[in-house]
Structures are given as structure tokens and as C-alpha cells.
Amino acid sequence: MSYPISLPSGNPLVTLTHPTASLWVIELHNGADSRLTQALIQRGLLPALDQVERHWRDNWRAGREKKDDSLCKGALIIVGNRKQDKFFSNGLDWDNAIKDPNFSTNFFPTVFNPLIQRLLSFPIPTVAAVNGHAFAGGMILAMACDYRVMTDGSKRNAWMCMNEIHFGATLPLSLASVLRAKAPNPTVLRKIILEGHRFTAKEALSVGLVDRIVAGDTESIVSEAQSLAESVSSLPGKGAWGLNRREMYRDVFEGLSRDVLVNNPIADDAAARARL
């Protein structure tokens, strides 16, 4: 089944499909590179997540009542636009976003952070089918999922990267909190945040940023993501998956809930001038 979620103009932001009884797939449709705009997040991703949880909980309650564990299974896959094999998500629409004078104070606490918090507290396992580049906010979206299946890059280049250091943007506390929780060690975290390293799929697999890499096109990535999702879909059957994940990422939730004004190089230099 397919459940398109659209803007009033009719332009779909995401497509929600239900390929098996226990799996849901959210496909991003904000152009080929799936920029994480306010519209995509608030009118596409968040409503789609609500629909998935509502559907799964209805099944789960029925399964509890009928004592049928098969109804309690569930897992979610998030994938970039399936009509291309280049991007999972190219991150925020930075050039346009910063034109909003309220961007630095409002976007993360009121738009982006609620999405990440939603994913980190979701009641069923989540799998990112990384079918191309995952830059900046796109990497955070993938890292907020429980598992990551990535194209191996043999068809075309695909990188995971937090490239903010290369254009002078500072990381909000919320994004840094996610990376601290998900990076396997301080050395990898340094490469991510301070070096803006472009991890190839093989590098990402070797350091533990992704769980599997797959040759082929987007449909091959989705197929492997479905295999992984099915293998863990029984784990939320007793209802504790989301509860345990919330405890696991307690420190991240604290970072997500703090409205901290993001600093920038100009303000930092002005403070240094006053101090020195």
C-alpha cells in the first residue's frame, strides 16, 4: 500500500509504503537530493512517522488481545528518492535557510530537533537505506536511525560527511549530541566534526558508522534494508524497544531539548577581541 503525503499544491514530500505486514518505508521526495527543509520535516516526515506509529500500535494492540505475536512485529525504513542513486539526503537547504533572520534561533529547536527526538524514541526499529550521499543533516538523519545500510559506492561515489567545518558553520548542541552518542570512538568523532572527513562506504563500515554495504542500485539497497529490518522486527513485540532506546540516549534528549543560540566565527572573534 502507498500513502502519499503532499503539500496543498499536491507536490509530494514523502511517500509512505507498507510492503509487508511488519515493514513500512518512508521515501523522501524533496527533489533528487532530498534537502531537509522545514516543509519536508513538518509536512512530510513527522506526519509520516505519526502514521507509521499509529498503524503499528493498532496492530500491536490487536496482537496483544489475540495473543498473536506476528501482529506485534514492526520496523521502519527511510530511503532517499528511489528514482536516483546519488543522494540519500544532501542535508539542509543551507543557502535558503540562512536568509531567514530567525534561522539560528528557531530552526533546530522547533523543526529539526523534534524530528531527531521522534526517531530516537520511535517504538520500532529504524533502518536508514543510504542510497547515496548523506551530507550534514542527511548524515544526522541516517545516524538517528538504529541501523544503516549503505550503497558500497561501486556504481557511483557515495559519502557520509559532516562538512560544516569546510564552510565555517558551527554544529548545534543537538547535532553534536547525536554524533557523540553514535560515533564509535573519539578518533572517529574528531574525523567527523573537526576534519569534515568524507567517509566512503567501506570506511564507514570499517569504523562502525554503517552496518552493511551493498552493491547495486537503490532497489538493491532497499532490499538489503528490508532483510535487516525483518530480522529485528520481532524485537518491539513486547513494547519495550522505544522505552529502552529513550534510556539509552538520555544524554542526547537533554541536548535536543536545550535551546542554545548557535555561535558563529564572527561572534566568536568579537568575543576574543573583547577578551584579548
TrEMBL record:
GO function terms (MF aspect): delta(3)-delta(2)-enoyl-CoA isomerase activity
Pfam families: ECH_1 (PF00378)
Entry-linked InterPro entries: ClpP/crotonase-like_dom_sf, Enoyl-CoA_hyd/isom_CS, Enoyl-CoA_hydra/iso
Top-level taxon: Eukaryota
Gene Ontology terms: cellular component: peroxisome
Alphabetical GO biological process terms: fatty acid beta-oxidation
Annotated SUPFAM superfamilies: ClpP/crotonase
Family listed: Belongs to the enoyl-CoA hydratase/isomerase family.
Protein name listed in UniProt: ClpP/crotonase
Species this protein is from: Trametes cubensis
